[in-house]
């Protein structure tokens, strides 16, 4: 048993070393990726929960590394965040998503919104509202078709600063969504102070909907609260017809998930958008 313990320990040490090596490697590689055009955006439709018509898309970052293959944002976003690379990367995401929406609008898709994820670090940049304004101007977009998704925990990490930034963004006319809702620690008081437009119920609740009454009751409570606050509500991670049916019954406004479509490159998602347009 003793020997086993030592092996386990050694295993973890080398695994941890490998992990921090990989983090450093990733940071350097990510720096080059930005210069070498290895980043791209995939888009996942957001649909009206009742009609299944497309109301918008969410832009999701992808990194195709020549040797590592497709690196998951769950892995590289934290590295980008801690190294500060998230700022130039985030700017690239905003610009690229805005230009894509401009292209889609020119092809007649006038009723879709573009949702872009913001990291905590980007959100705490005082220049963010100016950047968003410039990006919208360059792409000639009406601000209401642009949505910024901010995780509940990022929005809550510094509420007074968040309030100011959010107020400026709201003045611009862009919409604000609270992402991963239910996984952070927002109090109702904090939530009430944020000028948000939409709550996105975290996919962990949706995934467990069929596991029992507790998750159903929680999703129900979140939807009722959002309705009372006049917020729109989107369910993420919808994978089955049963999940969709239940969310519909509750009065969820929008749904997003593999049941409708996986995130795909612009050229591959286009036909879906045209088929389900309002
Ligand atoms: P998120 O914003 O919560 O995005 C939803 C994630 O769930 C995406 O993972 C999406 O591909 C995945 N997903 C969508 N539908 C389903 C489903 O039906 N089932 C399951 N199991 N998963 C589904 P992805 O693309 O790997 O992104 C992971 C996270 O990385 C995102 O979570 C977001 O926090 C972050 N991220 C992605 N792109 C960006 C970006 O441009 N900027 C920043 N700051 N973060 C980003
Ligand atoms: Ca999101
Ligand atoms: Ca989410
Ligand atoms: Ca998430």
Q: How would you summarize the topology of this molecule?
A:
Elements: H1 2-35, E1 39-48, E2 54-65, E3 69-71, H2 73-83, H3 86-106, E4 113-118, H4 120-123, H5 128-139, E5 146-151, H6 152-156, H7 159-172, E6 175-181, H8 188-193, E7 198-201, H9 203-207, H10 213-228, E8 232-235, H11 241-250, E9 254-255, E10 264-265, H12 266-275
Parallel strand pairs: 2-4, 4-5, 5-6, 6-7, 7-8, 8-9
Antiparallel strand pairs: 1-2, 1-9, 1-10, 2-3
Helix pairs in contact: 1-2, 3-5, 5-7
The protein binds ligand C2E and calcium ion (3 copies).
Ligand C2E binds at residues 44, 60-61, 72-74, 77, 93, 117-119, 149, 179-180, 203, 236-239, 257-258, 263.
Domain EAL: 23-277
Organism: Comamonas nitrativorans
Protein name: Bifunctional diguanylate cyclase/phosphodiesterase
């Amino acid at each position: 048993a003793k020997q086993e313990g030592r092996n386990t320990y050694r295993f973890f040490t080398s695994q941890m070393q490998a992990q921090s090596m990989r983090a450093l490697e990733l940071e350097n590689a990510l720096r080059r990726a930005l210069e070498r055009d290895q980043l791209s955006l995939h888009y996942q439709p957001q649909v009206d929960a009742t009609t299944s018509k497309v109301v918008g898309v969410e832009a999701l970052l992808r990194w195709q590394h020549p040797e590592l293959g497709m690196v998951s944002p769950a892995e590289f976003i934290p590295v980008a965040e801690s190294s500060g690379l998230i700022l130039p990367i985030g700017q690239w995401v905003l610009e690229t998503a805005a230009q894509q929406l401009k292209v889609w609008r020119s092809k007649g898709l006038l009723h879709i919104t573009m949702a872009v994820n913001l990291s905590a670090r980007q959100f705490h940049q005082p220049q963010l509202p100016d950047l968003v304004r410039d990006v919208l101007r360059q792409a000639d977009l009406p601000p209401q078709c642009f949505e910024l998704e901010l995780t509940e925990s990022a929005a809550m990490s510094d509420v007074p600063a968040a309030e100011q930034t959010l107020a400026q963004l709201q003045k611009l006319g862009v919409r604000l969504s609270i992402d991963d809702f239910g996984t952070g620690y927002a109090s109702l008081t904090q939530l009430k102070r944020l000028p948000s437009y939409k709550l996105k119920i975290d996919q962990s609740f949706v995934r467990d909907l069929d596991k029992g009454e507790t998750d159903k009751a929680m999703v129900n409570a979140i939807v009722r609260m959002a309705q009372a606050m006049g917020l729109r509500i989107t369910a993420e991670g919808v994978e089955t017809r049963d999940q969709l049916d239940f969310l519909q019954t509750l009065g969820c406004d929008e749904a997003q998930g593999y049941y409708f479509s996986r995130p795909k490159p612009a050229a591959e998602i286009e036909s879906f958008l045209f088929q389900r347009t309002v």
